[in-house]
Amino acid sequence: MSQKKHTLDPDKWIKSHADYLFNYTISRVNNHEMAKDLVQETFFAGLKAMKNFQGKASERTWLISILKRKIIDYYRKINSAKGKAEVKMNFYADGEREGEWIEERVPTSWNSETEKSIENEELSNTLELCIGKLPEKYELVFRMKTIQQFETEEICKELDITSSNLWVIIHRARTQLRKCMEDNWFQN
């Protein structure tokens, strides 16, 4: 049984894949202009690499794999441009509630779908605000590991950090997020 050999049709990339690639990117970089640039760079790199396409994956899957590299390169560039030094600061210690994370504190009962939708949007906006308040390196590592679900080894390699440093950063980021969410969401 032979597998279908996929082909590329660059003339239809924008119409067929631009929106999907943009939505994929914006959820990972949270910057509209940068997301557009990364999608453009992906299309350009795809054109340059067409001769390497073997037809084993679909056109979209192949473009996504290029886009993932572009996103990693973007984060690597940010990290190296800002320097490798970690910012020292005081961290919120929560005592009894240590280890309670944001997901566990979201209310579970809703009165209606409309309220649920509004509340989810408000929660999302507050969470995004809190993520944006993290020190740059913490935000970068948190987004890559928790939101984008990159593998630990991949993040460590790309950002030139150890796995234990990564987990310390994740812990500190979550602690700061929890404090920020308590101050800005759960107290309302």
From TrEMBL:
The RNA polymerase sigma factor 70 region 4 type domain covers 126-177
**A Gene Ontology molecular function term of the record:** sigma factor activity
Q: What InterPro entries does the database record attribute to this sequence?
A: RNA_pol_sigma-70-like, RNA_pol_sigma-70_dom, RNA_pol_sigma70_r2, RNA_pol_sigma70_r4_t2, RNA_pol_sigma_r2, RNA_pol_sigma_r3/r4-like, WH-like_DNA-bd_sf
Pfam families, per the entry: Sigma70_r2, Sigma70_r4_2
Keywords of this entry: DNA-binding, Sigma factor, Transcription, Transcription regulation
The segment(s) forming the RNA polymerase sigma-70 region domain are: 14-77
SUPFAM superfamilies (alphabetical):
Sigma2 domain of RNA polymerase sigma factors, Sigma3 and sigma4 domains of RNA polymerase sigma factors
* PANTHER family from the UniProt entry: RNA POLYMERASE ECF-TYPE SIGMA FACTO (PTHR43133), RNA POLYMERASE SIGMA FACTOR HI_1459-RELATED (PTHR43133:SF8)
Sequence similarity: Belongs to the sigma-70 factor family. ECF subfamily.
> What name is this protein filed under?
RNA polymerase sigma-70 factor, ECF subfamily
